[in-house]
Amino acid sequence: MKKALLIVLSLLLFFSVSLAEDAVSSATLSVDRLPAVESTGSGILVVYFSTDDTIRAAAYTVADTLSADLFEIQPAEPYTADDVNYHNSQSRTSIEQNDLQARPTIAILPEDLSRYDTIILGYPIWWGQAPRILYTFMESVDLSGKTIIPFCTSGSSGVGSSASNLQKLTSESAVWLEAKRISNGSSAEDIRVWAESLGLGKEETGMFYIHVNDAVLAVKAEDNSSTEALLQLLEAGDITISMHDYGSFEKVGPLGTTIPSNDEDITTVPGDVILYQGDQVTIYYDENRWDFTKLGHIDIGQDELKAILGSGDVTVILSANP
């Protein structure tokens, strides 16, 4: 398998491969095969760095789901098993991760990113952060004006500050969406569900966005007349809502107008965006059951969502754009 992967991971930036028969040995994911990835000019590029099959498996699955192109960040000096020994304080990666200025050399950089509007960036968590070679990449390419969606895997660590530290190395015009940690044991289907929730690579994205506390939360919209009305409002301009906590499970605030309701008995989960009484918008960070209209869902962990929303009153902006 390793030999087959090395053949396709050449110095070419953009490629279509057929690896459906190659088994994947992954430390943390339950993914048996790499899909065949075919580019269709979607304007999406999956950039990934992987020293084993974990991030590689996730990256191929995301690219296949979104018909995206792939680019692997390959180090000029490949990492060996000894290099990534977490328990050896003198291993290559231990030394690099403890050196804020370390910038491992990349074998080849993308020649042209102008055809891409969206970069999906995959990396493992090393010592609580992205590998330093990701810093090399960020400082070596121009991502101005692009939407960047990070995802990571790890044995136990969360996203932490890994994505925000990478964001500091890019242009202020680059739009960073919330990073996703792909949980241990995630299957190919789990990864596809997340990729589809981004609303990319489709004629109608069915997405809207919540800007709150310097974060951008992507909301996968429901297919109903309520969301259709909301999206029409957002096409005319952003909507600012002052929200407050209610019942220790939601943030709620007035929409400023009334839109159609499609109420049904719902047990909410963290990340649900709900219309209440036709003129109130709520963001749920815990469970509740009532007759509501679901507007959409944010694919995010409960703790991460709570941290972004903060405690007490908060002002959010609903927008058609990230």
Helix content: 10-25%
Count, helices: 8
The total of beta strands comes to 15
Query: How is the CATH topology of the largest domain named?
Result: Rossmann fold
What summary fits the major beta sheet? 8 strands, antiparallel, barrel
Measured by DSSP, the beta-strand proportion falls in: 25-35%
CATH class of the largest domain: Alpha Beta
**Secondary-structure element order, N to C:** HEHEHEHEHEEHEEHEEEEEEHE
For the termini, the CA-CA separation is 39 Å
Poorly predicted regions: 1-26
Which homologous superfamily in CATH is the superfamily of the largest domain?
Flavodoxin domain
Side-by-side strand order of the widest sheet: 7-8-14-12-13-10-9-15
What structural class do you assign from the helix and strand content?
A: alpha/beta
Q: Structurally, how many domains make up the residues?
A: 2
Commentary on this structure:
It is a single chain. This protein has 322 residues and is an alpha/beta fold. Helix content is 22%, strand content 26%. It contains 8 helices and 15 strands. It has helices at 2-8, 53-66, 92-97, 132-140, 162-167, 188-197, 225-236, 302-309; strands at 44-48, 69-72, 118-124, 147-153, 175-176, 180-181, 207-212, 215-221, 239-246, 250-254, 264-267, 272-276, 280-284, 289-298, 314-319. The strands form 2 sheets. Strands 7-8-14-12-13-10-9-15 form an 8-stranded antiparallel barrel. Strands 1, 2, 3, 4, 5 and 6 form a 6-stranded parallel β-sheet that branches. The protein starts with a helix and ends with a strand.
